[in-house]
Amino acid sequence: RVVDSLRTYEAEAFAAEGWAVFAPQYRGSSGYESAYTLANRGDLGGGDARDVLSGIDAVLHAGLADGARVAVGGASYGGYLTNWLLATTDRFKAGISMMGIFDFGQDWATSEYESWEEHYFGGRPWERPELYRERSPLSRAASINTPLLILHGLDDENTPVSNSRALFRALSALGRKTELVVYPREGHGFSEPAHRLDAFRRIREWLQRHISVATPLWVV
């Protein structure tokens, strides 16, 4: 979920590479009243995903980018939403998933913040099994055809690296184009300068490899 603070990640760096960068503040984010912040409770991957897609439509309608060259990426919840969007739509040409959830049941069992799933799903996995499975990208893994770069910190206790390992294994088994990079000593996010630089370079190369130039759109 997006917070109401100036966190542009590497948006300026990608803009300097010729990308139009779109950072949507989808429902479930902060900055508005509490009803907006809680709007995706029980609906993860629902209205928030539609917000992202409608925002992309608005950007393209304004003529700011080429709809045939759209990539999507995100970290933490943005990583989950990236996984989910790639599993539910084919409009993206490349994806970047960082510290994202792949299987809510597994994440509940391994994360130090299991209360997060309980809050948003209204119960534990055995109490809401259908919802946990329905909104997990794992249940739709076979529909992910977009080339996906996966980045994760080895010591992440918020969203454990097992999520990304499982995602990578599933896509590899399906014969999809994917790469997994795990950074030592990193938790839920990359802090070491060498790791941040390496991640940026890998993302840039991945996007260049799978999307040709001419005002592409990078959704982050």
What would your notes on this structure say?
By secondary structure, this protein is of the alpha/beta class. Helix content is 40%, strand content 13%. The chain has nine helices and six strands. It has helices at 11-16, 34-37, 47-61, 77-88, 104-110, 114-121, 129-134, 162-173, 193-210, and strands spanning 20-22, 70-75, 94-98, 148-153, 178-183, 217-219. It has a six-stranded parallel β-sheet, with helices on both faces. α5 packs across α6. The longest helix is centred in the last third of the chain and has 18 residues, at 193-210. The radius of gyration is 16 Å and the shape is globular. The protein starts with 10 loop residues before the first helix and ends with a strand. 40% of the residues are buried. The model has no long low-confidence stretch (mean pLDDT 93).
Determine the number of helices (DSSP H or I, runs of at least 4 residues). Answer: 9
Summarize the amount of helix as a percent range.
40-55%
The chain-level mean pLDDT equals 93
Report the principal-axis shape.
Answer: globular
Radius of gyration: 16 Å
**Uncertain stretches:** none
Largest sheet: 6 strands, parallel
Number of strands: 6
Placed side by side, the strands forming the largest sheet appear as 1-6-2-3-4-5
Element string (H = helix, E = strand): HEHHEHEHHHEHEHE
What class do helices, strands and sheet pairing give?
Answer: alpha/beta
Percent of residues in β-strands: 5-15%
Multimer state: single chain
Distance between the termini: 11 Å
